Structure formats: structure tokens, C-alpha cells
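Hi Y.,

Following your request, here is the sequence exactly as I used it, all 164 residues.
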Amino acid sequence: MAKKKFKLDLGKILTLAAMVLALVAFFMMFAPAVEDKLTTTYSGAQVAFGYSKNSTKILVFSAYFIPYLLLIIGLVFSVLAVLGILPKFSKFVSAGCYIAAGVLLFLAVQMATPSVTDKLGDNIKNETIKNFRSSLTLSYGAIVSGIFGLLAGIAAAMPVFLKK
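Below is the corresponding structure, written out as C-alpha cells. Let me know if you'd prefer a different format.
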């Protein structure tokens, strides 16, 4: 039996490029994602998984972990596409995950959730969260991560539309 050669065509190169872009977007979670007006910055990991300083909880676990989860799912399906397991389906799913993650990565300010005690009334609690979010601005980590996520989605979708 002859050994099967691993053929590297343009589709696989684009899928590998999408994987590299997605990895860069994922590791940008350690760069500042949001910035306070007082020059306090919070990384994407802190916004997603919570942050405490001097035993005082500042941020709590939020929905900002979803874009990072989508990047990992996209990477898994990109690996499946490179290996030839369900190639068309894997390319569509990975492209969709990358694009969705790229869009959601720009929503760091809206997903940042401050730690507010439940003893406050709902009106005061909502007002506190609103004031906290209004003092935040999007930082370079979330912007670069979102751009790389969208570029990964485009690179992952291109092999589907290429003619052989």
C-alpha cells in the first residue's frame, strides 16, 4: 500500500491562516479590552471571568467569555477541515464561529458587569451598572481581537467559494 501524501492546496493554506488569526484573537484576551476614564484598564480575561483587587470584587463572570469559546470551537472545526473530516460543514461552522466571535469581541463595554450587592434595590443596582458602563471605553485589545476574529472568519469562508 502506498502512503497517502498530505496535499497542501490553497484551501488548506487559507484554513491554516484562519487558525493563526483566530489564535492571535484568542490570546489578545490578555491585552486591555476596556479602559476606565481614570486610566484603569481591564483585560478581556478580567471582563469575561471576573476581577478582584485587594479582596474587593470589581468585575464578575460575564457573557464576554462567549467570544473566546466561539474562537475555540472555530479552531476545532478548522482542524477538522484541514484533516478532511466533514470539510464543507467544518469550514462553514468555523467561519460562522469566527465571525460571530469577531462581532461579539467589540461588545466588551456592554458585557462588563460590575460587582453590585443584591441588597440594593433593582433601580439602584441598574443605575450603578449603567454608570459603571458609561465610564468605560473600548481599548485596543478588544479592537484588535475583533478585527482578527473577523479576518479569520473571512479566511475560513474563502475556501468554500474557491473553484478547484
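The chain has a mean pLDDT of 90.

Thanks again,
Q.
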